[in-house]
Amino acid sequence: ENGGGLGAAVVTETRPKLKKPSLYRVLILNDDYTPMEFVVYVLERFFGKSRDDATRIMLSVHQNGVGVCGVFTYEVAETKVAQVIETSRRHQHPLQCTMEKD
Ligand code: TYC
């Protein structure tokens, strides 16, 4: 910056406008067939939950139909959803996972 005396260079500092990324909730859905232990495993493996937290979330989904696994930027959320669905499919469980804007 420089208010500028005669002949002085004028230096204008510009800051790029950084926008915070939108966040997305990753949700798991209840169903009648996926074993409780498999849901706990998925929450530990892909969402870094402790066994206790994973068990609480799984039971809440079992009772309420849906639950939040975590909140992530778009591409991370998309990857988690794909990992859960693919792992469930490989194990022939119908567990479903989706994302929505936070
Ligand atoms: N309802 C399932 C059962 O009784 C357990 C379950 C919990 C399934 C959470 C999916 O996201 C889920 N075996």
Outline of this structure?
Pfam families: ClpS. Binds to the N-terminal domain of the chaperone ClpA. The chain is of the alpha+beta class and 102 residues long.
What does this structure look like?
With 102 residues, this protein is of the alpha+beta class. The chain is built from three helices and three strands, in the order E-H-H-E-H-E. It has helices at 36-47, 51-64, 74-90; strands at residues 23-29, 66-73, 96-101. It has a three-stranded antiparallel sheet with strand order 2-1-3. The model is unreliable at 1-5 (pLDDT under 50). It binds L-tyrosinamide. Residues 28-32, 34-36, 39, 58, 61-62, 95 line the site of L-tyrosinamide. Binds to the N-terminal domain of the chaperone ClpA.
What keywords describe this structure?
alpha+beta, 3-stranded antiparallel β-sheet, 3 helices, 42% helix, disordered N terminus, binds L-tyrosinamide
Structural class: alpha+beta
Give me the number of helical elements. Answer: 3
Largest sheet: 3 strands, antiparallel
C-alpha geometry: elongated
Order of helices and strands: EHHEHE
Spans of at least 5 consecutive residues with low confidence: 1-5
Distinct small-molecule ligands in the complex: L-tyrosinamide
Q: Estimate what percentage of residues fall within beta strands.
A: 15-25%
Report the strand count. 3
Strand order of the largest sheet: 2-1-3
Q: Give the termini separation.
A: 39 Å
Percent helix among the residues?
40-55%
Averaged pLDDT, please? 93
Radius of gyration: 22 Å
